[in-house]
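Researcher: I've been going back and forth with a colleague about how Helix-turn-helix domain-containing protein might be arranged in three dimensions. Neither of us has a model we trust, so I'd like an independent prediction. The organism is Azospirillum lipoferum, in case that matters for your notes. Sequence below.
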Amino acid sequence: MQDHDELANTTSRLGVCLKAARRARGLTLKQVAERTGMALSTLSKVENGQMSLTYDKLLQLTAGLKIEIAELFEPAGSRPERREVITARRSISRAGQGHLVDTTFYSYRYQCTDLVGKQMVPILAEIRARTLEEFGALLRHAGEEYFYVTSGRVAVHTEFYEPAVLEVGDGIYLDSSMGHAYLNAGEEPARAICVCTSEEPDLYQKLRSISEAETRSVDA
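Model: Here is an independent structure prediction for Helix-turn-helix domain-containing protein. You can compare it with whatever you and your colleague have in mind.
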């Protein structure tokens, strides 16, 4: 439990921080009371270090002011500024370029393969398999992905949803760890742009290893 001096210091710090947060937003105590639904007298006592707040009241206060709870215990000026990190990475993908993985049932052309440690992997896909038997086991890997159909029709199968058919211009965003498969659902070639993303730095290598497990790999 907090001793008397520690509790007093916490109460005083809360008051100072609340006043700083309020003034930074050009608000009066009355406006804060209106935004948060808290009594004006309560807010005045808090600012003057005469009382503290329960956790529920702190959440009510931060929700009304749309601020992080940390701002009520650490003045904004005392927090180190976050410096934006600019990597200046860039890669141009020319037509026909990329790492091609070609199979009987699909072809994937991985784009911008000169960049290592990507958190996003863009793929140009052509879907040939028309049944789950042809496709094989559902795919599963870390992260999430977006699949956008550019030609033909594609049936999307997942382990938790009924199949969905995507037409040209349709897209689907899904959890990649959920079993999934893309099948050609039309007479014409089915092509799409797929973007996979994950916090894992070696996502590209893992995706390649999955698709190359039973295929031949061709560098283009």
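Researcher: What would you highlight for our discussion?
Model: I'd start with this: Confidence is low (pLDDT under 50) at residues 216-220. After that, consider the following. The helical segments are 4-24, 29-36, 40-47, 55-65, 132-135, 203-211.
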